[in-house]
Write a structure and sequence with these properties.
Length: 100
Amino acid sequence: MPTTVYTLLCQTDRTGHVLAVFTDRAQAAEVARANAATHAERLRRQDEKTFKAPIADDVYQVHVEDLGSNLTVFIRHRFLDEAETYRWLVDSFELVPHRQ
């Protein structure tokens, strides 16, 4: 009997790697959102250091695109309306046991 698993990948325009494998899609999606939120906060703090001024908490917004079996989570700059290069992808795969 096949088992469905969900991989969480972190992808940029240059690289990509698997962060984790889950049996629960909702858990994979929540971890993807949490990773994106952490990265958005890191970007906001970096901006504060660069501009030496406070930056609004919501300047980097986490967006989720649910495409059925796949999910994409990304960060968008609120004022520039540009997506950040990091994306977190949740993809489903079926594992089929090998029978002898």
